[in-house]
Amino acid sequence: MTLIFAHRGYSAKYPENSMLAFKQAVIHGADGFELDIHLTKDNQIVVIHDDSINRTTNGRGKVQHMTYDEIKQYRIKSGLFKVIDEPVPLLEEVLNIVRDYNLLLNIEIKAESGKIELVLHELLEKYSMNDRIIISSFNIENLIMMESIDSDYETALLFDKYHKSPWDFKTKNNIKSIHPNAKHIKVDHLIELHEHELPTRVYTVNKEKDLAMWINSSVAGIITDEVERAVKLKQVKKRD
């Protein structure tokens, strides 16, 4: 059965990558989360999409140039102006939810390769949840580095355009799955992907007709902002 991953938490209704969005995703039945990570100046892994706090908080500054104590004094924004009473979370806080509710977690590395992978691995090893963690990135160097550190974790290469033979990355680099933009892959393509034993999770699927199509396909997972909509359609599929 296709799994539902809450994109940056339940981000259709709650501020992206906030603890509120992750907790609401749990409440509404997501199988797991997708989130983004960066490394602070003092080597803390924070959950934030951009390399700065400008867009998503009421503060300003580059994540890599700030300590976590500096970042956490600011609050996450909901929309352009409204602010909620939550700081940018640490990855560790989300990992605790994943552990407590037996969920899956897709960690997208946004930072440049070279340092964050070692810090990430050290943190993940405290949880012993290898089978529930997926590490993804658009940058294959991040994934190659993770594979060299510990090949027990599933790595997933993100694509924002059509790729004729993504299984080549499995053969050459041991990449274990792919996360293509749903706009650039067709259901028919899944046959070849299955033949090459390459699990596929599509992003970011929000419209009801698109969600229904992918839920009725053989994709391993759907990454969506619309958690309730996706979960309801999955429940219908289970009853059929």
CATH topology: TIM Barrel
Main sheet attributes: strand count, strand direction, barrel closure? 9 strands, mixed
Number of helices: 9
Kindly, what is the distance between the CA atoms of the first and last residues, rounded to a whole number of angstroms? 12 Å
Oligomeric state? single chain
CATH class reads Alpha Beta
| Shape descriptor | globular
CATH homologous superfamily assignment: Phosphatidylinositol (PI) phosphodiesterase
Q: What is the second-level CATH architecture?
A: Alpha-Beta Barrel
Query: Radius of gyration from the CA trace?
Result: 17 Å
- Indicate the proportion of strand residues: 15-25%
Q: Flag low-confidence runs.
A: none
| Class by alpha and beta content | alpha/beta
Fraction of helical residues: 25-40%
Q: Compute the number of structural domains.
A: 1
The counted number of beta strands is 11
How would you state the average pLDDT, rounded? 96
SSE string, helices as H and strands as E: EHEEHEEHEHEHEHEHEHEH
Describe this structure in words.
The chain has 240 residues and is of the alpha/beta class. The chain is built from nine helices and eleven strands. It has helices at residues 19-27, 68-71, 91-100, 116-124, 140-149, 167-173, 189-195, 208-215, 227-239; strands at 3-7, 32-39, 45-47, 77-78, 82-83, 104-109, 133-137, 154-159, 177-180, 201-202, 221-224. Strand 2 (32-39) and strand 3 (45-47) form a beta hairpin. Helix 8 (208-215) packs across helix 9. The mean pLDDT is 96.
